[in-house]
Amino acid sequence: MNKIGVIFDLDGVIVDTAKYHFLAWKGVANHLGFEFTEAHNELLKGVSRVRSLEILLDIGKVKLSEAKKQEFLISKNEEYLKYITKMGPEEILPGASKLLDTLDELGIQYVLGSASKNAPLILRQVNLYERFIGIVDGNSVSKAKPDPEVFLIGAKKLNLKPEHCVVFEDAIAGIDAANTAHMISIGIGDKQTLSNADFNFKNLTEITSDFIKSLIKKTQTIKQK
Ligand code: B16
Ligand code: MG
């Protein structure tokens, strides 16, 4: 059997931290005097912290000095950490632990590929940190998704060619990054939103051992081309 490896996004795939990002960004917006809705929050999914602030300021049509932006980036993260440090294993999204078990059984290694600088802390909070053979997070990359850097570093950690890596992602930018890296992209969430993905599932409970085995076959076909 040919070897494949898996790269998991964090927020929206393993845990739902978007709700905590929302509460923290809403606090910033309200402080600046405008409303920030859940629909606005959709625009921040998979996007880096700095880019998230730029999007939020565009929504409120607010201009800030660089020094003020830094202050808000720090205060937003402090607020976000209040929620994160209360997280526990019960917040692992349905199907995630079982999928890791399936990968373990099949001898398939996995790493994390997240935009979040808080990714190691979050994985520790939910007791999953030790299961990943590598973590690529917002601290390890110079270019954010949709740039493929985060996943290409992940492939190096897996010691695999990009064509043999499978990416689980919930954000358009992440699917685009995986596709640009020539990896197999799996969209988790709304099929229409993630129409660029090679495969689509509502959530990880739908991923079966047979599906993973079919991906192994698929990569063998790629090799024979
Ligand atoms: P932090 P992911 C992303 O996580 C979130 O989806 C995105 O909303 C957030 O802005 C980004 O991490 C940065 O997070 O402020 O903790 O560094 O989906 O790439 O796992
Ligand atoms: Mg995500």
Features:
binds magnesium ion; alpha/beta; Rossmann fold; 225 residues; DNA polymerase, domain 1; six-stranded parallel sheet
Brief summary of the model shown:
This protein has helices at residues 18-32, 38-42, 49-60, 66-84, 96-106, 119-125, 149-158, 172-180, 209-224, and strands spanning 5-8, 110-113, 134-136, 165-169, 184-188, 199-201. The chain has 225 residues and is of the alpha/beta class.
CATH superfamily of the largest domain: HAD superfamily/HAD-like
Distance between the termini: 17 Å
Uncertain spans: none
Number of strands: 6
Spatial strand sequence of the major β-sheet: 3-2-1-4-5-6
Oligomer: single chain
Shape: globular
Mean of the pLDDT scores? Answer: 96
Helix-and-strand structural type: alpha/beta
Using the CA coordinates, give the radius of gyration.
Answer: 18 Å
Number of helices: 9
Q: Which ligands appear in the coordinates?
A: 1,6-di-O-phosphono-beta-D-glucopyranose, magnesium ion
Q: Assign the CATH class of the largest domain.
A: Alpha Beta
> In total, how many domains does the architecture comprise?
2
CATH architecture grouping of the largest domain: 3-Layer(aba) Sandwich
CATH fold type of the largest domain: Rossmann fold
Strand content: 5-15%
